[in-house]
Amino acid sequence: MNAPRAGFQRNGTVEIREEQRETWGTRAGFVLAAIGSAVGLGNLWGFPYKLYSYGGGAFLIPYLVALIAVGVPMLILEFTLGHSTQRAAPDAFGRLHRRFEMVGWWGILLSFVIITYYPVILAYCFSYLWFSLKALATGANLPWAGEGLAGVTNAGDFFYKTYLGYSEDLALGGLRLNIAVPLALTWLAMYLCIFRGVRFVGKIVWLTVPLPWIMLLILAARGLTLPGSPQGLAFYLNPDWSQLAKPSTWRFAFGQMFFSLSLAFGVMITYASFLHRRSDLNNNAALVGLADTATSFVAGLAVFATLGGMAFATQQAGHPVPVQEVVKGGPGLAFVAFPYALAQLPYPALFSAVFFITLVTLGIDSAFSITESILAAIVDKTGWRRGPVLIVMSLVGLAFSLVYATAGGLNWLGIVDGFVNGTWGIAFMGLLQCLVLGWLYRIDRLRRHANERSDWRLGAWWNGLIRFLAPVTLGTLVWWSMFDDFASPSGFLRDAQGRWHAGNVAGLAVVTLAPLLALAFSSLRGAREAAPHPARPAAPFASGLPALVAAVASVAAAVCGFAAVLAACRGGRPGDPAALAALAAAALAGAVAAAAAYRHIRRAAASGADPAWSARWAGILGTVALGAACGFFLALRTSVAATAAAPSAPAEGLSAAAYGIIAAIGVLVFGGLAWSLYRAVTAGAREDAAGERI
Length: 694
Ligand code: PHE
Hints:
72% helix
């Protein structure tokens, strides 16, 4: 990587680094790499299963709301931050303000936790691919094949007992070589993909992005042509509108969207830092978000059509296995249900190989995007050479991953994933990012930077999304889930008998360690210190004081609301008037504070001054209190963490509403994708004509 020279050049309101660091080479290289990061294991087993569990087709509504209102706007934010600073996440934040660097490291540390377990799942996929290829070559049966419900148990036993040697308790047990060897190979493959730098990654993704798409299309086409597939699709798409009234549906839709777009981990910031100075940002973000959603949707079609085919085939063979008997979340779907279903159908080894090639190629570019972002963060901070850092990092990563290559490993994988990937990790990071960039930094600068070079422009509404809508929605989710965790009757850290839940304690320790380490890393002196922002006079503290007073009042009301909601939940009074009044007061004062802060900031900008710190903090506190009020309100209404009910068998085939949903997705997602591509192509043609193609 070329060492970029420190120093900024003032260019209107935006700072652009003078020198260009290493780039992707082409626009397609970047877009494919970002899609490669986004499209991963989460699309093929996370999305279909969550959709199935939370309302079928109805789940698409919260998912699309999450994508359009929060996902794509935040992706634009991350792209712009990386691009304008040309630095990996921690340094990118550090360029804006010395103290923000910690936010970047926090995300990087969470990514590090993910990169210890994500390759383990890829290692399972490699093993299953190997089993499938062996069966294909020798003509033997797949090792998990079996008939009827006993066959499902058999497939489960093969995965949990034979392959994983799984034990339910948290003790790790010895290292399992059958997992450790493919795991080491996975790390090697990741290393080989990125060791030559991002330009080479931009070429590798020409293989790892289209290949799983082709495989998915094969699986979908095959599934859809099986007799019985409409019955399977009915599970996937027939909407259960009542699920929309349950907050858990919304919670899972947001969580899934965040993970799927690789948001808040610093990955997208880092990838965008390798873009050419003149590259588009807004349209690229839309392309990535829509392509990711399209992939998830098609993956669901493939999975459920095949399961429908399986239900039909087993019925015909006289040992019926209905769809709902095999669909279980998490690894069960990819390593038990789907392999079982394939084994019931013609050409089992062939399609099983296709399925695991899909998983491996889907996952590998997500995995190395994480490695790349950690690597770039270290290299940018220390100035060390990329090659040796990557080798050491891969070895350290492998050593940590080996923890999961044990009998109890899958339990730990589930726990760690639940924390990092859930409210405690990713949603919280997303919230922090919006607050810091939206209120503490002048977000208009980023918008202008994005608009100056993009195929289409963002309006001022984008500022509002990043300042209000995204943090309030994320805050609602964060506060509500944290409340649920701690107030849950089964006890979060200790059970009713006072015994500690080792898994939750460890998970919490991991997520709280992250900010502490982030603080430590950010306080180390880097090789290239950021040039300070040119100072501008700030508006007087007193001018933001009324907003701050409202904000403090809203926080106080939210704290009272919290106590009242806790008491009301324990006493079983979901309509408790004191709790409702406190929450309403918190929400109102929070909204007033945020609105006043927003007005102050606009006025300050118009007069060429920086906003007062009082107003900035008023904005943050007000938005947080508003989110907390909403979150506690939901907690009050649901009081205990809601679990998904497995859908009952739907009526024969797809309902009319399901067809409507397919049409709506066709227009919104695939139509949107076509529109974005059209804008990109016409913009490219204009640049060609003007001779400024990059
Ligand atoms: N988006 C990836 C997936 O859906 C996972 C991922 C998360 C990748 C975070 C990078 C960072 O599987």
